[in-house]
Design brief:
32 helices; 70% helix
Length: 640
């Protein structure tokens, strides 16, 4: 059904034939017989028939084209409405969410009242030292309200202007907890990703632009990016205008490019985990076998064994090796790598993750699932470790839920006071509080939580995985802002995605972009185009050493040795101390038959770098060509 509806939408946009689309749609509408969908379909059919009647009678209508376009858009919206209806009755997670929302969600107005009351009641209860039972009940009721609202948003059909306004006001309200708003914004993202709704996407744009909380803003931005897979320019004029205005903002474009980089870093979690598992951890623990096992703590029988797990051999060489590897991990983290994915990916089978909405919950110690953690030694330990190396929300919940059992087994004093925490690497504590609260870090942690959902959750099969899509079309990617993304993709060898970026960029005189584009073209053997790219870039960057070098090498690959010799001469003018440049010029001279010109240079290089086999072999070859076979053998016996 979903495939059929998507084909109808594509045909509408491609052929703009309303009659064909109505005929294709009619069997599906009849099959499901949903009253409001059938009514809307009949209205569109009736309006179309009326338009045809007027045309047959010869009436001129200056508004006909506009009306026809509006009918096409109405039919597209009807296909989405039918697709949502089918999903709510056939997709397990949506069926469950629909039932939950129908029984426990009343209205946006009532939701807002409850969320505002929670803030007030929580503040009053925290002033009372004997209010733990009441606080627990309050948190449970609050989470139940949030879960129902999450499900209601997820299963909602396209919002009206009135509904959009109510939700927008709630998300931006200063009397609603920012974490609650952020939580519900994730539901808007999920819904908009699955079922195109211009109103929801417009709300996300408004929330991103206007929210005071960076957590809320970044969740809205990610929601915009991930729901863009459903967006088609021209389907909604208001949304088109919102996006046009948004992408005109330099700061937004920059954040969107950073978001794209962070998405690719999340997608590299498996390869980063392999590096940690195969290279770093075995070197840290020496000869001890290293395995990632979620039940590792259940195999420890004493506090001493636990302490040994975190201990460091005091041998100077071991300490240096461990510190080096810890710094390597810390550097990976600073560069955006998801270094905790491998370990925490085995801890997503806890009952907490059986609830769909919990996968998207911002971390809060007041979540009912953390009743045993709140106010305990486990909370103290969680705060300490998180301050050294903060986890994404999903991993923080996993870690927090594990701590009570760990502490009850070994004792809080052992965990907190016997040097275990002191042994944790200080390399991971180089970030300031301001950095952790920044847009980049909030977005990174949220994306990491989302990546765990779309990779590990049992619910993931019911949703579109946005990490499989490329987001380049979301913003105004240009030569000026694309370089960090291009470098990341090249470094990570994500060549398919890199080509998508490069193909979206115009021919550019940018030296850095040209170098990477040239290397990519050379990878696929397109040397002529590579030479053109370098030549254009050199017109604007005539002193760029790497461009001259790349140009010289590709000219040699094309057999254009006279031009390559000139480029090598320019390289020598820039850096006469680089042996490679003189060597390449001599090779060019030999290939052109100018052996006598090459010999003085080769003799000099061979004298100064007698250990260089390449120079010796080229010199020997030059001597052999010039009829000096005996000298050739003396220079390079392998010539015999």
């Amino acid at each position: 059904m979903q495939k059929q509806l998507e084909e109808i939408r594509q045909a509408i946009r491609r052929d703009r034939s309303l009659g064909d689309a109505l005929r294709a749609m009619k069997p599906l509408v009849s099959q499901w017989a949903v009253a409001d969908i059938s009514d809307e379909f009949e209205k569109i059919s009736g309006d179309y028939q009326l338009m045809k009647d007027f045309m047959l009678r010869g009436y001129a209508d200056s508004e006909r084209e506009r009306l026809y376009h509006s009918l096409l858009l109405r039919l597209i919206k009807t296909t989405w409405k039918l697709q949502l209806h089918v999903a709510l009755h056939h997709t397990p997670s949506l069926m469950k969410a629909y039932t939950r929302a129908a029984s426990d969600f009343q209205s946006v107005e009532m939701l807002r009242d409850r969320l505002e009351n929670y803030v007030q009641e929580y503040a009053l209860l925290t002033l009372n030292v004997n209010s733990s039972a009441s606080l627990s009940s309050l948190n449970q009721a609050h989470q139940k309200t949030l879960d129902a609202a999450f499900c209601a948003i997820l299963c909602s059909s396209a919002w009206t202007d009135a509904e959009s306004g109510k939700w927008r006001d709630l998300f931006l309200s200063t009397t609603v907890d920012a974490l609650d708003a952020a939580f519900l914004v994730s539901a808007v993202m999920l819904s908009a990703m699955m079922f195109y709704d211009p109103a929801k996407m417009t709300v996300l744009v408004d929330v991103y632009r206007s929210a005071d909380s960076e957590v809320v803003r970044q969740r809205a931005l990610v929601g915009i990016a991930f729901s863009m897979s459903q967006y088609v320019k021209g389907d909604d004029e208001h949304l088109d205008h919102a996006f046009q205005s948004l992408w005109a903002e330099e700061a937004t474009t920059k954040q969107m490019i950073q978001l794209q980089e962070q998405v690719f870093l999340c997608m590299a979690a498996d390869s980063d985990t392999k590096v940690i598992h195969d290279e770093i951890m075995p070197d840290i623990i020496g000869k001890k076998p290293y395995t990632i096992n979620p039940d590792v703590f259940s195999k420890i029988d004493s506090p001493e064994e636990l302490a040994e797990m975190f201990s460091i051999d005091e041998d100077d060489e071991n300490i240096e090796r461990i510190e080096k590897n810890m710094e390597r991990m810390a550097q990976m983290q600073r560069e955006g790598s998801d270094i905790y994915y491998g370990g925490f990916s085995h801890m997503k089978r806890l009952p907490f993750f059986y609830t769909l909405s919990n996968w998207f919950a911002p971390f809060s110690i007041n979540h009912p699932a953390l009743e045993q953690v709140r106010g305990s030694k486990a909370e103290q330990m969680l705060k300490l470790i998180s301050s050294m190396s903060p986890f994404c929300d999903s991993d923080k919940y996993s870690f927090a839920l594990m701590l009570p059992n760990l502490i009850s087994r070994f004792g809080g004093q052992t965990m907190m006071g016997d040097g275990i925490l002191e042994a944790l690497p200080q390399e991971f504590s180089r970030y300031s509080t301001e950095e952790y609260a920044s847009a980049a870090y909030q977005r990174r942690f949220y994306l990491q939580s989302l990546y765990r959902f779309f990779r590990l959750s049992d619910y993931r099969h019911d949703f579109i995985n946005p990490f499989g899509y490329f987001l380049n079309g979301c913003a105004n990617v240009n030569v000026d802002n694309a370089l960090p993304l291009v470098r990341l993709l090249y470094k990570r060898k994500l060549y398919t995605q890199l080509w998508q970026v490069l193909d979206s960029l115009p021919a550019s005189p940018s030296a850095d972009i040209a170098l990477i584009r040239g290397r990519m073209l050379s990878r696929r053997g397109d040397y002529e185009q590579t030479a053109d790219v370098y030549s254009l870039a050199l017109e604007h960057s005539p002193e760029n050493e790497m461009l001259h070098y790349g140009y010289a090498r590709v000219l040699m690959a094309l057999g254009r040795y006279a031009e390559a010799e000139v480029e090598c001469g320019k390289l020598i003018d820039i850096r006469d101390d680089v042996v490679r440049y003189s060597y390449l010029r001599a090779v060019c001279q030999m290939e052109m038959g100018h052996v006598e010109e090459a010999l003085p240079t080769l003799f000099k290089l061979n004298y100064e770098h007698a250990e260089d086999i390449d120079i010796a072999e080229v010199l020997a070859w030059a001597l052999l060509i010039s009829g000096q076979a005996e000298k050739a053998v003396m220079v390079s016996p392998s010539m015999v």
